[in-house]
Amino acid sequence: MRLSRYFLPVLKENPAEAQIVSHRYMLRAGMIKQQAAGIYSWLPLGYRVLKRIEQIVHEEQARAGHIPLLMPTLQPADLWRESGRYDDYGQEMLRIKDRHDRDMLFGPTNEEMITDIFRAHVGSYKDLPMTLYHIQWKFRDEVRPRFGVMRGREFLMKDGYNFDLDKDAALHAYNRHMVSYLRTYERMGLTAIPMRAASGPIGGDNTHEFLVLASTGESEVFYDAAVTELKLGAREVDFDNRAEVASICEEFTTLYARTDETHDATLFDQIPEDRRKVGRGIEVGQIFYFGTKYSEAMGATVVTPEGTKVPVEMGSHGIGVSRLLGAIIEASHDDKGIIWPEGVTPFPVGIVNLKQGDASTDLACESLCKALAAKGLEALYDDREERAGAKFATMDLIGLPWRITVGPRGLANGVVELTSRRTGISEEMSAEAAVERVAQIYAAHR
Ligand code: ATP
Ligand code: MG
Questions:
Q1: 12-70 pLDDT, tens digit each
Q2: Residue located nearest, by CA, to atom 16 of ligand 1
Q3: Which fold has domain 7-338?
Q4: Is 151 a pocket residue for ligand 1 (Cβ < 6 Å)?
Q5: Is there an atom of ligand 1 within 6 Å of 323 CB?
Q6: Whose alpha carbon is nearest atom 2 of ligand 1?
Q7: % of the chain surpassing 70 pLDDT
Q8: Distance between CA atoms of 278 and 250, rounded to whole angstroms?
Q9: CB of 438 closer than 8 Å to CB of 355
Q10: How many Cα neighbours within 13 Å face the side chain of 3?
């Protein structure tokens, strides 16, 4: 992509309305534009990252055996009257009337609708286990939308729902979600710690939130420092193996890690003092087991192998897809701008032409773009008539992890410069070697 033909409305000044760094950089890097309190347009650069995050979520859900579908944003109120939540949900729910005076709402979550789909089409234990999910816009009329996409009113969420015959199977689904979420966040370059949570309006007693440590997080967290060292890494997980999945969950939930809602000072004090940490965290996901709460209220039953009808066991599991952009930036930036982890970067590599209009430099940049494209890597090529300093500042702000700098002096010696955004370290090498290096780095993130 040539920057001269792209739409990247970067801002020179710090926007006054942004209180935290991720919001500031998302506005400055031309990723989002606010349209109303807590409602944003996703400009091309932001949209690319959003799509990358969605892609990783889809891939990891597929790996866990979960099935994508798509439910609408607007829902009939009657479904929510069945579960009793139409009145309970309160002012966070955006209520709408259609032209026939029917009560509708913009979905804040989808337990009712998925239960409706299930009861219409599934009736036998033979169809279980089943987990359905979608990635869809939600609306919650938050009292205080703030921090950009971190606490929006309209936001993108992955929400998944498991249906199982009995409690053991449903708890396996819960564990499967925990492990798939751990994988998902790791691929995004994040350490997200599962913490025991309080349940809230979804209901249920088995629930964990996933928190990314950040000083700007809205939740107060208490944890054993050793928990931040845990990694899934390259482990292959058999998601059908209950014992294996359960033991990974145990590994990640045994050390103390809780939000203020579930904090237990007595247990906390038993952690060795040098590992006892109090901090703040951003909630990037939550999983719930709630049993038959919705299936009983809405008549979603299955026939057991013995021929009796029982309400289906359920849980729901959410990832804050749009919030993740903010969380990733909070966790990965410096004073010049964003530092995207390779897994989610909008472009894998940027190319800076130091002498735009110089025929051989232009040509070298163009063939670099082609060579990268041949490896499946789309470069963002800064081909503007701008000073080198301005080009570097833009690249640093938008945070592409790798930059290739091309100038006449280097080319005379047969080299370009490859720079890591994270370390700032530059290395000279041939254009072919730079392409090879970048391709190798990204091969590890596929
Ligand atoms: P919070 O406590 O932050 O209000 P929640 O517990 O109400 O969130 P869930 O129902 O668990 O949210 O939704 C799943 C995920 O959706 C959350 O973990 C969070 O990452 C994301 N999310 C929730 N509310 C918002 C919001 N207003 N803006 C952006 N993302 C959100
Ligand atoms: Mg939550």
A1: 999 999 999 999 999 999 999 999 999 999 999 999 999 999 999 999 999 999 999 99
A2: 320
A3: BirA Bifunctional Protein; domain 2 (3.30.930)
A4: yes
A5: yes
A6: 283
A7: 98
A8: 22
A9: no
A10: 26
Q: What residues does the ion ligand 2 have nearby, CB within 5 Å? A: 286
For 275-286, what is the mean pLDDT?
98
**pLDDT tens digits for range 90-115:** 999 999 999 999 999 999 999 999 99
Separation CA 381–CA 377 (nearest Å):
12
Nearest CA to ligand 1 atom 13: 318
Mutate to test the pocket of ligand 1, among 40, 158, 323 (most ligand atoms within 8 A of CB): 323
Paired tokens of 22: 């991720």
Whether residue 408 is preceded by a cis peptide bond, meaning omega within 30 degrees of 0, is no
Task: Identify the residue whose C-alpha is closest to ligand 1 atom 7.
Answer: 200
Q: What mean pLDDT do residues 231-254 have?
A: 96
Q: Which of 286, 317, 324 to mutate to test the pocket of ligand 1 (most atoms within 8 A of CB)?
A: 286
Ligand 1 center to residue 348 CA distance, Å?
A: 29
Cβ(385)–Cβ(325) below 8 Å:
no
Architecture of domain 349-443: 3-Layer(aba) Sandwich (3.40)
**Structure tokens, 368:** 């670099």
**In the chain, domain spans:** 7-338, 349-443
